[in-house]
Specification:
This protein has 6 helices and no strands. The chain has about 80 residues and is mainly alpha-helical. It has a domain at about 30-80: lambda repressor-like DNA-binding domains (434 Repressor (Amino-terminal Domain), Orthogonal Bundle). The model has no long low-confidence stretch (mean pLDDT about 85).
């Protein structure tokens, strides 16, 4: 888990546009709205919106883990 934490922290130092696009793409592949993802990941709609738009460039590990679980992808797939 420490590896993932360090990997995520290193990604936060880079532009996260590809990161935002991956979350949006995974969500859309599942035919899921931002509101549905937010509800199921136990975060606010605003959080999902800001992550996907790139306005939130440092989401918490818990948030990323929850999003990955809901989308049924690995955390590494989201942040690579």
């Amino acid at each position: 888990m420490l590896f993932i934490y360090n990997f995520v922290n290193n990604m936060a130092k880079k532009p996260l546009q590809p990161f935002a696009k991956r979350i949006r793409a995974f969500r859309q592949e599942k035919h899921m709205s931002q509101a549905e993802l937010a509800n199921r990941a136990e975060v606010s709609n605003i959080t999902i919106s800001k992550i996907e738009s790139g306005d939130n460039d440092n989401p918490t590990l818990r948030t990323l883990r929850n999003i990955a679980q809901v989308l049924k992808v690995s955390l590494i797939e989201i942040v690579k």
